[in-house]
Design goal:
single chain; mainly alpha; 0% strand
Length: 307
């Protein structure tokens, strides 16, 4: 199997797992969102530590300890992904899966927005058009909900900020996930200890199956991220961008078709505007990539100077 096909398999696997994650989190009731988040952090640290130990790759921590700016960046990334995970779990367990799907639909537009305001990038006309349609979608959905879709916006901005932090850090997926989860592990363990002391912990008190599912929250966190890293290393950005919408489509399907969340006409119109913005954004990205490649092919090859 060639590397490109393997990359697509990894990418589709990652987005399929993320797309059906609401079904998994629903099974963790009656655990609350913060308890689920704490178990997700603790068990993902344990799993990734085992993977690093098996690969004999723990030594990177010594080099990382000598880079205080990198450690500060990892702490910021950990806070952002913690906010993202917690918000997503809260949205699923409070029967707002449709709104969480909206957050990941608008995430690519927020990434572009951060590129403008943080990295001072210039937008192409197609990107401006996509941003305008996306803003109109948020207005329509705000009117429909009677409030800002704050869950969706929190998910979109936290994940976009996390992606920006990860891009600047440049850590491999496994090492990055381990250190980020380790930053969150101490408060997570403290919270679980506090819950147990109060007698409010569900871990070990509901059923054996429920306990096993809480432990497997670490695998549900780590496996899609590792698959995504394998895809990102093998696929062009356009290929990765085309399949990134698989997860929110599946999440939306779970919310409407399985959990029977409402989708009134005004909300559907808001989603339709989001999809239109994504179509404009994707078409512009594909055209820009093709033009860049064509220009690179036409560029003259430098002739080495004669001695």
């Amino acid at each position: 199997m060639n590397q490109l096909r393997l990359g697509y398999l990894y990418g589709i696997g990652a987005y399929l797992l993320w797309g059906f994650l609401p079904l998994y989190f629903k099974l963790l009731r009656p655990a609350g969102p913060v308890e689920i988040l704490a178990h997700r952090v603790v068990w993902s640290v344990a799993l990734v530590a085992l993977l690093l130990a098996a690969a004999r790759n723990i030594g990177f921590l010594r080099a990382l300890a000598r880079r205080p700016r990198a450690l500060a960046g990892i702490a910021a990334a950990a806070v952002l992904i913690g906010i993202n995970w917690g918000t997503y779990i809260y949205g699923v367990t409070s029967d707002r899966v449709v709104e969480t799907a909206l957050g990941y639909f608008i995430n690519p537009l927020v990434v572009v927005l951060l590129g403008v305001f943080v990295l001072h990038e210039r937008l192409r006309p197609g990107q401006w058009a996509a941003m305008g349609v996306g803003l109109a979608a948020v207005v329509v959905l705000t009117v429909d909900y009677g409030r800002l879709p704050y869950l969706a916006l929190t998910l979109a901005f936290s994940f976009a900020g996390y992606g920006l932090a990860k891009k600047q850090l440049g850590l491999p997926a496994t090492e990055g996930l381990f250190v980020e989860s380790a930053v969150l592990a101490l408060p997570a363990l403290a919270y679980l200890g506090w819950l147990a002391q109060r007698g409010d912990a569900t871990f070990g008190h509901v059923s054996a199956a429920h306990t096993v599912l809480l432990v497997l929250a670490g695998a549900a966190t780590a496996i899609p991220l590792l698959l995504f890293a394998g895809a990102a290393n093998r696929l062009p950005l356009t290929g990765l961008g085309m399949i990134q919408y698989l997860a929110p489509v599946l999440q939306l399907g779970c919310g409407v078709l399985i959990f029977h969340e409402p989708m009134p006409p005004a909300r559907l119109a808001g989603f339709a505007l989001v999809w239109l913005a994504l179509i404009v954004f994707t078409v512009d990205a594909v055209r820009h990539t093709r033009r860049t490649r064509a220009a690179a092919r036409r560029a003259p090859v430098p002739v080495p100077a004669a001695r």
